[in-house]
Amino acid sequence: MTVCAMLVAVHVLLSRILSVNAWNMKIGLAFLPVYAAAYLYGPWIAAIVGGLGDLIGALIFPIGPYFPGFTLSCALTGVIFGLLLKGGKPLKSVIAAAAMDQVFIGLLMNTFWISLLYGSPFLQLMEIRAVQAAIMFILETVVIRLMDVPMKKAAKYCYE
Fold first, then answer.
1. Which residues pair with 20 in a beta bridge?
2. Is pLDDT at 49 greater than 70 in this prediction?
3. Which 3-state string (H, E, C) describes 13-69?
4. pTM for the full model?
5. Residue bearing the bigger pLDDT, 18 or 112
């Protein structure tokens, strides 16, 4: 439970303070604690870390109005990562997880939430957000792959 609480705190920090945020885009490393929870504990704990990280971050450091759809998106990222990446997987699993996260969550769901929240046209937003999704896909793939060895060491200590 302590590790999960720390991961939630790191998620808040990376998402709300150390990310590039605009009303329709966010680029940063907030996926890292969700990935760590997924690697160590699986999809349901990762979903809790992602969801709580978003909820607490929105309450403490609001960027705009709170919208529960984004919390659901963060939780679903944890499920995707947990199902595809628990315990470390080959590069094709990392690519699949990053692609699913960025296409289904980042591009489709979050664009829909922004469209609902701000009344912006969905298809026009998708054009803009496709750039973010491409950047985040590359960032997630590279960073998750680089974290494989450190996560193996962390898992060894967590399970001893």
1. 27
2. yes
3. HHHHHCCEECCCCEECCCHHHHHHHHHHHCHHHHHHHHHHHHHHHHHHCCCCCCCHH
4. 0.93
5. 112
